[in-house]
Request: fold
Amino acid sequence: MAANTDPVADAAPAAIRRSRVRWLILLLISVMYMITYLDRANISVTAPTMAAEFALSKTEIGWIFSAFAWAYALGQIPGGFLADRLGPKRVLLLIVPFWSVMTAATAWASSALTLFAVRFVFGLGEAGAFPAATRAMQLWFPKQERGLVQGVTHCFSRLALAVTPAIAIVIMTALGWRWVFYAFASLGVGWSIWFAVAYRNRPEEHRRVNAGELAHIREAAVASPAHGATPVPWKAIVRAPNMWAIAAAYFCFFYGAYFYLTWFPTYLIEYRHLSLKDVGLLASIPLIAAMAGDLVGGLLTDALLRKTGRLTWSRRIVAAPALLGAAAFLIPAALAHAVATAIICLTVSNFCLEMVLGPAWAIPMDVAGVYSGTAAAIMNMAGAVGAAISPLVFATLVERGSWITPFVVTAGLLAIGALIWTFLIDAEKPLIQELPPAS
Reply:
């Protein structure tokens, strides 16, 4: 049935049994999230082998890990701006094939310098993915489902982290480390074809969306355009204290989360003295817990919003305690002598940490409306800076003889993030005061 372009034209849209196309769109976006993290995390598994082959120091590995994050930070604002101006479809069909090529190009590197360069360009390619996806979700989902959809998409990204060690080790054992990058690169190419066929920027443009689903998505509001007709109000967004608070809190979150994308397998091998086979199993446990945390955080913030109608409180009451819990369990994880105890504490810590993602990524949609791609890009840029710094700090402290201090530093930053959420972030305060956020 063709979509009605005017959600209020139908006399009784509530009486129409709603189509469910938005959930297919969610699956499509979620698979893209999974591919982004497969392509990011594969190098953490191949790093020990690459370090031995190229005689790389801990500091050099730290810089290679951070290369992606520095470029990712630089590309956020252009990526978010293009998503708001051109629409998510054009942006994603450009960048996903590009970063897939750069994933394959990692296999062609032969030194620390070439590895850094390839991962830097790869980071530029992936930078626009989440801002564009956030804009897509703002167009396709009402506010009472935004925590859930952000939780689901990030659950898929953490599924990627959970399965990457096992998949990469099988490929490495059979074919060598370079084939890890070739195999993972093919996934992005396949997804791009699927996306080109299945996705439309707005539900109004999708022939399978009926009037009932469209009314539910728009909540009887006028649909926002898929791309901006007016310039992005940069000054208003950048000057907003709320934007700075959102960005600072995500800096703290991503600083902690990036450990699992970079140093975690090396930590298990070199500090906990596990075999490569054991790492393939045990490294997945905290990451599976992360998937549960994503879903719990997203479901909980939406349930609280529906129950209370208090937007800021429903985001804050999930994120702040979760960050405190993540910080609290990092310390015993670092100090534990038994491997099992350390893994259990890291699992609980990562579960709590990932609960933050649902409310955190719902916030740009809550406060920025048609500029949600730009707001998400600024938030994610700050997070990427934290991610870029994290492996360098870890490498520096480890080379000085301490595997414990990096965890203490991370715990402190997560506690600061909890304070920011508690006192500074306001989901009910639009970044653009004269324009309320779009539904």
